[in-house]
Amino acid sequence: MKNLTLENITKACQGTYHGDERLFCQEVEGVVIDSRKVMPGYLFVAIDGVKVNAHKFIPDTVKAGALCVVSHEDLGETDFPYILVESTGQALLDIAKLYRDSFDIKVVGITGSAGKTSTKEMIASVAAQKYQVHKTLGNFNNEWGLPITIFGLEEKHQVAILEMGVNHFGEMRRLSSVASPDICVITNIGVAHLEFFKTKEGIFREKTQMIQDMKNGGTIILNGDDDLLSQTAPIKGVSPIFFGMGEDNAFCAGHMRPLGLKGTACTIYLPDDISFDCIVPLPGIHMVSNALAGAAVGYTLGLTPEEIKAGIEGLPSIPGRNNIIKTERLIILDDCYNANPVSMKASIDVLDMAIGRKVAILGDMGELGDNTKELHREVGAYAAQKKIDLVCGIGAISKELVDKAASGADATEGVWFETKADFLAAMRRIIKEGDNVLVKASHGMQFTEIVEALQTF
Fold this sequence. Notes:
The protein is of the alpha/beta class and 457 residues long. The protein has helices at 6-12, 58-63, 88-100, 116-127, 145-150, 171-179, 194-197, 200-207, 285-300, 305-313, 341-352, 372-385, 398-408, 420-430, 448-455; strands at residues 16-18, 30-32, 42-45, 68-71, 82-84, 106-111, 133-135, 159-163, 183-186, 219-223, 241-243, 252-258, 264-270, 274-280, 323-326, 331-334, 358-363, 390-394, 413-417, 436-440. 32% of the residues lie in helices and 20% in strands.
């Protein structure tokens, strides 16, 4: 791997090298934190999990051909090279920073309370019309996932799209200092992780810390429809560029025509009086917002309007992320990867576009702090407002959501289940042929099991 000699790695993480000095100038072939993925020539960074001491797997990695190991435990005299560091977690970030800085590449950093992954996919689809793109896989966006994503960079790549997710104060700078973005995109400021940030203003302060590590001459792209982001003053001497539905945004949309679950037809407006008509292929107003973010990044990277349009219209769907699955008997809206109140309401908006009976299977939303019950009730009220025919809640807290939905409108029926197993046992009595079914919950609820069951309905 470019520039990742054992010598440079040792310096980057301020470690102490133990081993054969003749290997000091040798580059590693890969960097992993999963001992099962070690191949000959790889570097294994032993990061302990909550329940597992990763250092016990070091002998296995040596047998698999690891060139070297990074450890925060003094291993004493060994017959294999290792680098002793104070913290293997920090070492992983330091090594990723060393590797990222080895590339002359444009980096787009993305954060926000909701929509990070879907916006990342949209931006990647647009940028790929002109450049070789490397992007975060899934939501590998934390202090382990970001480095792993960066280690996937190759010489062929011209643009990297890096998603950064945080849920505690101080985490953003640990990520953004590694990513060193040229373009900073923030999707919105919602109430996700309110348990730790306490207020939306706290979330705003932490998310915008990414901009502090933006490279000189960089670009800030923010959601102008967000009440906090829209008031953002220049940072580091750079004035933000805004995208959103409002005409006062530099990148905005008009003439919107919903196409049901086939997406939204609209006109995208760029600076300099440039515009084009296009179809955003996934439904929901939030996907139009994502398209505008993609357009803003594409414009900044020098793409033509034709290339931007092609990227928007060519957006692929991904499982668990606003993914529409059509079976012989149902239309399933698989948005089960994660959930917070903002994204839950957006998904209900998508379901509302469907023709026929509308069913929302919703689970608990995590990390909402003291307002957990009220925020669940708020989503229930929203489902009733949209006259969703049936709301099925699964999980202890979701009872608040169901009770509110069922009390809010005569048209909305509510059914609550304590567990997924309870729901699955009743599913064939509740779901009807021809239903449009939304499936959404926090990741820990593991609702993919429900999506799979619905596909066999």
